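User: Hi! I'm working on a homework problem where we have to compare a predicted structure to a textbook description. Could you give me the structure for the chain below?
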Amino acid sequence: MRWLLLTLLLLVDAAAAESASEASHWEHLSLDGRKVGHSELRLRSDGDQHYRDYRAELQLIDQEHSEQLQIELWEVESLDGVPIKLRWQISAGRRIEKVNAWLKDGQLRGVHQIGTRRQSFVLPAPAELVFGEGLALRVGELLSGQRQAVTIAWFQPARRVISRWQLSSRLLSLESSSDPDLVSLQARNLDDGREQVWQWHRRSRRLLTPMQIAGQAVGMKAVSRELALAANDPVDIVQDLTLSSPFRISERALGGRIRYLLQRRDGLPLGLPEGAEQQVVVRGKRSVVTVCAACSSQTQEPEPSESYRQATRWIESDERQIRRLAGRGARRDESRDRTMRRLVRLVQKQLGESVDYLGYASAAEAMEQRSGDCTEYALLLAALARSRQIPARVVAGIAYASRFTGGGPEFGPHMWVQVWDQGRWRSYDAGFGRFDAGHIVLAHGDGSPHAYAEVAALIRQLEIVDAGQLPELASTQQP
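Assistant: Happy to help. Predicted structure tokens:
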């Protein structure tokens, strides 16, 4: 379930201590109150340059596999906060992603690498561009009252973009915080107008950038080196998102129609997607969801835009090796359903050599590595479909998983694909091998991890109140 391991807003940053030429800061990282890792920030000034080396390690359990997530950020700046270069790396399982970037001639130039795949990038570098030390100097002006607001440009290595922000001197108290050095700054994105609250640690002069895994915020607390390196108590993130089924669902029931009664534990509305396979009726704070894979339906769905046929960063349907794989075994005048079943088998054969639960690889990356879980199975299947000019989208939701886990009746997080066929979206699941009434769609998108950022948080709030098999419909009836 790689999409569950998204480290969101991964702008991991920290700034230098005020006077020391060399210092270290340690943090205890936790999920749901359990220690899952640590971070260390090493700061050093040498001559006319300032160096910052941040490393975070998290230990997680995914499908009974112990996994390591490592994040590294190394930055070099002048003593007055002018950016020079940086190196960023995230290691998740066997997947290693790197960014090397440097300032030259008013541009931020760099190389993005995943495995053996390398891509250069060039971004205009605004005069307000800062790294960690530059940010510390600007925030220092706010805290001292020298300025009421400052404008900065901020580079996000994970996305290779630079965004402009205005920071306000209006501070918000954090009464619930046990750290008196922690304050909050008002931050407004000058590109899109959205506002955020940035947490700033005064003593270490650094930004506490939020991380989120499986829909849950990672707790960060400054501690001694000894406490930071104490033994971890890793969390099984998939088991933590497993939902109990009201009853054990038979294979026959999965092949028919099932009606679910769902609600959020916090009482908020669900707002689930609808389509030919999934009908939703809202009753107060609950939603009645009817799922049927094989039923005929008169439900009219909007014609998909051309974007569902196009390649993206995560669904590289235009790459030669993907087009070649998609054409393997193709027959003339092949029906769309037959094409998709053939593509499902190709995905299973291509990625079936090994399972890698950590990280989030694109379709082409998964094909090269010949490994993945339901995320990569879905991305590669969508890429193969689009390469055959079949509109396709990736969906995230929950699926009845007891037949695969061998455990009790339960639903787990899952991803699969929908393609446009004869006026409706039809589902295909390369991970489980077939789509059935045990699948409930929570969101659909373009395959990027950001499109599913809220799904894990939704699963944490979701409750299956009841479920039941419905009689089969006559061909003239609608679900």
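For your comparison, note the following. The chain is about 15% helix and 40% strand. The chain has two domains: 2-232, 242-470. Good luck with the assignment!
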